[in-house]
Amino acid sequence: MTEAAIWIANLLTGTAASIVATLAVAVIGLLLLSGRVDVSRTMRVVLGCFVIFGAGVIAAGLTDLASGASDRSAQVATLPPPPAYVPPDTDAGGYDPYAGAAVPDRSSAEERWLQD
Q1: What's residue 31's pLDDT?
Q2: Could you tell me if residue 84 is inside a domain?
Q3: Which residues contact 53 (CB under 8 A, 6 or more apart)?
Q4: Is residue 54 assigned to a domain?
Q5: Within a 10 A sphere around the Cβ of 48, how many other Cβ atoms?
Q6: Could you give the residue ranges of the DSSP H alpha helices within 1-116?
Q7: What are the pLDDT digits (tens) for 52-96?
Q8: How many domains does the chain have?
């Protein structure tokens, strides 16, 4: 019995279901933009996709809620502190890759042209 339930769950949330849901949202979006479908129908399709693909998370949340595991402070992992601030190296040897003009200097070419 559990193998059948797992097979159905994999079928409803697998690759083929993802492709079908993506196509459904794309088609209903195009129909909405062309004015052939109302917004409530579109929202129902999108909400249905969220419910189908989020069913595992929804079921786990309801199971935790029913079992009385409402103490979330014990389940939340503490994050490590951020690394210490290291100031950037300001002595780069005087090298500045952006120094100078961004356009080549044409004054010498113009002077040669004027002299001719």
Answers
A1: 94
A2: no
A3: 13, 17, 18, 21
A4: yes
A5: 13
A6: 2-13, 15-34, 39-53, 55-67, 107-115
A7: 888 878 888 888 888 875 555 555 567 788 889 887 766 656 666
A8: 1
